[in-house]
Amino acid sequence: MNSAPERTVPQAERAHAQWVLVLLPAVEHPLALYAVCAVAALRKNNVVIMSVDSMLCDRITIAKELIKRAEVLSKSRAGGVEGGAKLCSKLKAELKFLQKVEARKVAIKESHLKSTNLTHLQAIIESAESLEDVVSVLHVFSYTDEFGEKQTLVVDVVANGGHTWVKAIGRKAEALHNIWIGRGQYGDKSIIEQAKDYLQASRQQPVQYSSPHIIFAFYNSVSKPMAEKLREMRISVRGDIVAVNLPSGNVQEENDLSCSESDEDDDELLHVGKVDRENIVASLAFPREIKVEVCNRVNLDITTLITYVSALSHGGCYFIFKEKVLTEQAAQERQEEVLPLLDSFMEGKELFACECAVRDFQSILDTLGGTYERERAASLIQRINVVPDQPSERALKLAASSKINSRSVSIFGTGDTLRAITMTANSGFVRAANNQGVKFSVFIHQPRALTESKESSATPIPKNEAASDLH
Description:
single chain; about 475 residues; alpha/beta; Rossmann fold; 3 domains; seven-stranded mixed sheet; 18 helices; about 45% helix; disordered N terminus; CG025 protein; DUF1308
């Protein structure tokens, strides 16, 4: 009987099948080994398929849960969280892709499943859920870089009324650290470089005359040297901070999160060893409440002066007026009283109004105001520091339009010069100025007109009927 020809067997498959050789006669080794290797390879492939299927099932479950959480987040603020729909849309796109993979319409490797956008989107949601007063997610800010070029920056979460910017980071500490020390792929931008972009953009997007505070939230850890560098740049770090095993037995103090580093330290970081994710130096969570600098100056617009003294704001909202807009404002007042909101915001702050605002307010009051409205106006003016019109340079650069006139430029521009928050019901001007790249610090409220002189021709509404209309 002729012996079978020898066949070349890959080393990896030989390792899987070596154990059967002791059971086979010597003459059958080549064919038997080849056959067993094929079986072993098939078994290995089945294990991989099962692993991918299991991971795929987990990812689909996570995506569905994240969509629910994103929808809740989108409705967590009156008027909605800006960018909430975009976040939901991205999550739904991820789920749709994963479902295509599940239906075998798209081929994918296990490594690709691990690197989907789902990790980043989950980090965004968890960051937003950890903070108060989330204004927007995935918000695009425009800024000018250090070379004078126009750039855009996507901020994952804008919270605390705009005072806090959060970058949510889902990549592993090893990958982030390697990119930083030059071991990443070509074109990879390190977290430190991204931090510089955040700082540059934030300085050009002040909120109530202060640059937003920046937080980098790491959901798969960050190396200690990187955390120290970020803190040196005055960027807060959240997440697990892990040690780096230095070569040549060079050991760092693991509990030292000092912000001071010399140039020699920076050079030394380029030669660090491997990130040790098991060695957690510190775990930093989001604080329950982030302190922000509060602007204590308030500039009152004409619309706010009128709203503050209006009969509607002082119980005179139980009427149906001949003018539709007044009836609508009365209904809004019955639904939500505006005066408590104004008083709450003004409390403890220094009040200002420019001369043109006070002059035009008095003119409107003389024409339309009732007796009690005039009395309230006199009392309010006594509390206000009336200052000359002094519009800021950027306000004067606004191009005139149907929403932007010289009076509004003077009022909002004076508030800008005073570094005060302008209270206003003139949201049209605020949007128009924003569209021209000028963002004023404002507190926007609902308008209320002077109605005292209109009550005699209006139809009263019994309070019990008005109350039933609200339900």
